[in-house]
DNA sequence: AGCACGCCGACT
DNA sequence: GTCGGCGTGCTC
């Protein structure tokens, strides 16, 4: 959001710049389209089309006479066009002015796929802004706002699943299946022409019965166009009575409806943020408007959805990566037509068109999953703020551990801050204590004091959660004779020892796998020793230490089988002693009411890291994990094992809390002129040859200062760190390097980067080098 | 990104 | 004599 502050709150956007320069010699940076309001002179109609190709231009085409009956097209509709030897589906953006390309090079579009716009003007503008802000090709940005099926050119029909009986269906076949019989009769009632699944479910049919009938060949499912109708919102459940803080937050948000306002809802875990969301949403929904709710990737659980469903009786759609193409299209259409009043989704849902958008909520706004890491590197939180600004609706950012960027915007008066400090039911906040690992005997990686604390809890039939962010058995395989270590042949990393499903070595960075060597390849010793602690090994150790206790391990290896996570979840909800043990997966979203002790085993790495954001991330994680402890009536305790108990940041965090920590961290950032006090961009390069990545970056960075715009500046306005090899220089066989660019002035940074990056992408030296630009980079690896 | 064209090695 | 390797160049 770094840049967003300025971006949102001043009108000086890159878009604005592009508009100013569009008629000059410089090619329009991101192919912004001439506004199609001037009626063109007679002659052929030339239109501009955005295509899903990694090129920064939009493309001009002619409209054939045969399609003039459909003219004028709706900006945002799809067109089929010839492109090279291919045919592509693109988005019609508007009429082109005649300048630029020679008319003889123009091709003619093949077809127009839609009568109406799929992406209203406000969405197209937002997508243009995102393309320009993140320096990413406009066609690819636009295509990420469309579901796959529409991208492929499949017809836009409002599809819904309908059910009907098959022609040969006989009632007699179901004599001994009363439930299916009920569903059969229901279908019989609505047999012509079939009934939508959603209606059948409301009438008491179940999905399972329908499927069983289908398997028996008695019923069939088909897709059919539906008419969209909006159902009035009804409250399905009375709102809880808010406490004073919640009421103040709700009232304040209500005051700001119908205009843009960024609101940071800074509330402890368990202080009732969701209730504030729900009550703030109510007037928006009652006014017939839509609400967009963004949640972190792991946060979109059935429980989350249930919470909304049980409060509001209106159409709610979930948008996440696990949807099938058809389901995604249906959800998208429900949002795009305005029928779905609530859209809950992960990062990419921020680009869902919603014609009656009235409120945006971003839950756990600090979560890293809101920043896309590969290809189009946008931050959904920042896009959401921009969207709220453009569409004049409030944006609520909720978090117990707000990111420093958001807190900085509060400081500057650009975000309104609302605090929730009381926990529901007066639940006591967990105490956090450090365990000094120096001079402390350990068993299976656990300090004596920690083992004693665990025993105490188990005796009382309470549960313990142990957090260890390292999966596998052991992170290193070491030869004690000659200090050889098993390393990945393709990465600068150790191989992790795994014992499940069978003993093997595994690289967590490139997926390389191999057998364990029988003897040390260096000195032939046969005493190779797994060293260090992973979750699988800790599980073994815990079974030895607590033989009569259920140990529930939660990590990617233990939960990959279907249903295993559900089983663990169920067991954790029984009021009986148990130890939950796992990686980050455990930290987020899930509520374990019987956990009263949380242990964090390896926190030191987070504070001693080249990434300047690492302490912030670690603190957020600690607070989040701490929030898992003692949410019920029983007070919780958090124990953190560390070799560095004197670390000042850690001390401030546990003694004075996250707010004080953030303040200190912020002061350090300010002193170092790091984000959010300067804006940043990270340039990455990857090649299979060592040195070449660095050389390329070096070359490219000299061009940055060689630009005429940069030369005119007296003092270099940019500070460049690097180029340096990336923290893990070699990964999956490629050598990675990067450089960080800082600038105080966001507009200047984007102005310089924009022209320069276009130039870099066209460089002949670029062949064989994968390079990318990451605006407001969040992770330095 | 695709998908051409283009110019050199091991096959019938 | 061809099939195919991926270098490089273009796409309105």
UniProtKB/TrEMBL annotation:
Zn(2+) 1 binds at residues 479, 482, 520, 523. Keywords: ATP-binding, DNA replication, DNA-binding, Helicase, Hydrolase, Isomerase, Metal-binding, Nucleotide-binding, Primosome, Zinc. It holds the Pfam family PriA_C. Residues 1-26 have a biased composition (Polar residues). Its cofactor is Zn(2+). GO terms for biological process: DNA recombination; DNA replication initiation; DNA replication, synthesis of primer; double-strand break repair. Its EC number is 5.6.2.4. One of its GO terms (molecular function) is zinc ion binding. One of its GO terms (cellular component) is primosome complex. PROSITE patterns: HELICASE_ATP_BIND_1 (PS51192). Residues 1-33 are annotated as: Disordered. The keyword Transport does not apply. CDD domains: DEXHc_priA, SF2_C_priA. Residues 254-420 form the Helicase ATP-binding domain. Zn(2+) 2 binds at residues 488, 491, 507, 510. Binds 2 zinc ions per subunit. It catalyses: Couples ATP hydrolysis with the unwinding of duplex DNA by translocating in the 3'-5' direction; ATP + H2O = ADP + phosphate + H(+). NCBIfam families: priA, PRK05580.1-1, PRK05580.1-4. Component of the replication restart primosome. Belongs to the helicase family. PriA subfamily. Initiates the restart of stalled replication forks, which reloads the replicative helicase on sites other than the origin of replication. Recognizes and binds to abandoned replication forks and remodels them to uncover a helicase loading site. Promotes assembly of the primosome at these replication forks. This is Replication restart protein PriA.
């Amino acid at each position: 959001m770094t840049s967003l502050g300025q971006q949102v709150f001043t009108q000086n956007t890159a878009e604005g710049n592009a508009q100013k320069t569009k008629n000059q010699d410089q090619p329009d940076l991101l192919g912004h389209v001439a506004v199609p309001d001037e009626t063109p002179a007679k002659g052929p109609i030339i239109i501009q089309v955005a295509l899903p190709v990694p090129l920064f231009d939009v493309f001009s085409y002619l409209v054939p006479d045969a399609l003039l009956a459909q003219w004028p097209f709706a900006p945002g509709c799809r067109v089929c066009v010839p492109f090279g030897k291919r045919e592509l589906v693109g988005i019609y953006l508007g009429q082109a002015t005649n300048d630029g390309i020679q008319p003889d090079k123009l091709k003619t579009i093949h077809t127009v796929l839609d009568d109406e716009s799929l992406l209203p003007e406000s969405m197209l503008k937002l997508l243009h802004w995102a393309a320009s802000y993140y320096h990413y090709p406009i066609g690819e940005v636009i295509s990420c706002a469309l579901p796959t099926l529409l991208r492929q050119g499949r017809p836009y029909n409002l599809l819904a699943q309908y059910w009907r009986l098959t022609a040969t269906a006989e009632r007699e076949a179901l004599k001994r299946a009363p439930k299916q019989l009920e569903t059969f009769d229901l279908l019989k009632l609505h047999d012509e022409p079939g009934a939508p699944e959603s209606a059948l479910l409301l009438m008491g049919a179940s999905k399972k019965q329908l499927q069983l009938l289908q398997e028996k060949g008695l019923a069939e499912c088909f897709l059919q166009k539906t008419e969209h109708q909006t159902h009035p919102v009804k409250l399905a459940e009375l709102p809880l009575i808010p406490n004073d803080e919640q009421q103040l937050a709700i009232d304040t948000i209500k005051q700001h409806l119908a205009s843009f306002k960024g609101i940071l809802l800074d509330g402890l875990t368990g202080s009732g943020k969701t209730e504030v969301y729900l009550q703030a949403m109510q007037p928006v929904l009652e006014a017939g408007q839509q609400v967009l709710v963004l949640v972190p990737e792991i946060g979109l659980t059935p429980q989350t959805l249930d919470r909304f469903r049980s409060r509001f009786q209106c159409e709610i759609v979930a948008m996440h990566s696990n949807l099938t193409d058809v389901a995604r299209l249906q959800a998208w259409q429900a949002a795009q037509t305005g029928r779905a009043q609530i859209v809950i989704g992960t990062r990419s849902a921020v680009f869902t068109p919603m014609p009656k958008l009235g409120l945006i909520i971003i839950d756990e706004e600090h979560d890293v999953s809101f920043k896309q890491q590969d290809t189009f590197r946008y931050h959904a939180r920042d896009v959401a703020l921009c969207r709220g600004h453009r569409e004049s609706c409030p944006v609520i950012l909720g978090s117990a551990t707000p990111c420093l960027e958001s807190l900085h915007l509060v400081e500057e008066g650009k975000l309104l801050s609302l605090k929730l400090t009381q926990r529901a039911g007066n639940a006591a906040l967990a105490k956090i204590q450090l365990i000094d690992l120096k001079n402390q005997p350990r068993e299976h990686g656990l300090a004596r004091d920690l083992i004693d604390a665990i025993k105490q809890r188990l005796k009382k039939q309470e549960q313990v959660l142990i957090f260890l962010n390292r999966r596998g058995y052991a992170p290193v395989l070491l030869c004690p004779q000659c200090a050889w270590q098993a390393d990945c042949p393709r990465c600068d990393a150790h191989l992790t020892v795994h014992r499940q499903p069978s003993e093997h070595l595994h690289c967590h960075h490139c997926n390389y796998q191999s057998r364990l060597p029988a003897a040390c390849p260096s000195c032939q010793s046969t005493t190779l020793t797994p060293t260090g602690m992973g979750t699988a090994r800790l599980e073994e150790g815990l079974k030895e230490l607590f033989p009569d206790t259920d140990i529930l391990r939660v990590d990617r290896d233990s939960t990959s089988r279907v249903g295993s996570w559900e089983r663990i979840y169920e067991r954790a909800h029984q009021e009986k002693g148990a130890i939950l043990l796992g990686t980050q997966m455990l930290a987020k979203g899930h509520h374990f009411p019987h956990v009263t002790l949380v242990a964090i085993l390896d926190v030191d790495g987070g504070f001693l890291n080249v990434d300047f954001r690492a302490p912030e991330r670690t603190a957020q994680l600690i607070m989040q994990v701490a929030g898992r402890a003692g949410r019920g009536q029983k007070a919780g305790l958090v124990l953190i094992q560390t070799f560095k108990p004197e670390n000042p940041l850690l001390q401030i965090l546990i003694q004075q809390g996250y707010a004080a920590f953030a303040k200190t961290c912020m002061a350090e950032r300010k002193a170092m002129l790091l984000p959010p006090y300067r804006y940043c961009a990270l340039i990455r390069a990857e090649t299979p040859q060592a040195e070449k990545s660095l050389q390329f970056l070096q070359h490219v960075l000299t061009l940055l200062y060689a630009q005429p715009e940069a030369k005119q500046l007296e003092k270099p306005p940019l500070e460049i760190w690097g180029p340096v090899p990336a923290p893990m220089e070699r990964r999956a066989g490629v050598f990675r390097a990067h450089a960080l660019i800082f600038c105080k002035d966001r507009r200047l940074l984007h102005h310089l980067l924009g022209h320069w990056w276009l130039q870099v992408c066209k460089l002949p030296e670029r062949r064989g080098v994968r390079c990318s630009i990451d605006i407001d980079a969040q992770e330095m690896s």
